[in-house]
Input
Amino acid sequence: MGANLSRGPDGPEAAVSEALILLKLRHFKLKAISRFWRTPAFPEGSGPDFVNACCILQTNLTPNATLEAFHEVEAELGRARTHRWGARVVDIDLLAYEDRVLPSRQEFAHWRDLSLPDQMLHTPERLILPHPRLQDRGFVLIPLVEIAPLWRHPVSGRSVREMCEALPEADKAQIHPI
Output
C-alpha cells in the first residue's frame, strides 16, 4: 500500500495508517506490517515521492472480494481513479493470495510480459495474481522482504529475498525507511 498525496497536515503516512485501521475494521486481521518507506513515484516524474508499506492480512474473503474491499477503503479515503499511475491519496494492491495464480498462468504471463508503454495504456479487466510486476518493483519488494522474505512466487519459484536481491542497486538506493 502507498500514498503520495496528503489528505491533511499529516502527510501521506497518515493515509497509509488510516487505510490499515479501516482494513482492520472490515474483514481483515493484520498479521504483519513492514516499516514505512519513502520511494520515488513510478513511473519517474509521475508525482511526488510515495510512502509505501506492505502488510500480511488474514481474511475469509475470496481474492476478488478482498480486492473489492481494498477499493472501498481507497474510495473512503478519497481515492479518485482518474488515470493510471497518477498521484493518489492511497493505493492498496493485492500482491498475492496464498500461492494462487489467477485467472490462469497464461493470462498472468501475458500481463507480466507486457511492455512498459503497453502497461501504461492497458489495465486488466479482472484480478491477476500474483501481481504481474511484483518481482520488478523495489517499492514493493523492499518492504515485503521485512515481513515475508521466504514467501515464494508461485510462478517463478523465487523467494521475496531472492527477487529483492536481484533488483538493480540503483533502484534500491532510492528507497529509504521513514
User: Anything to note?
Assistant: The CA atoms of residues 138 and 167 lie 7 Å apart.
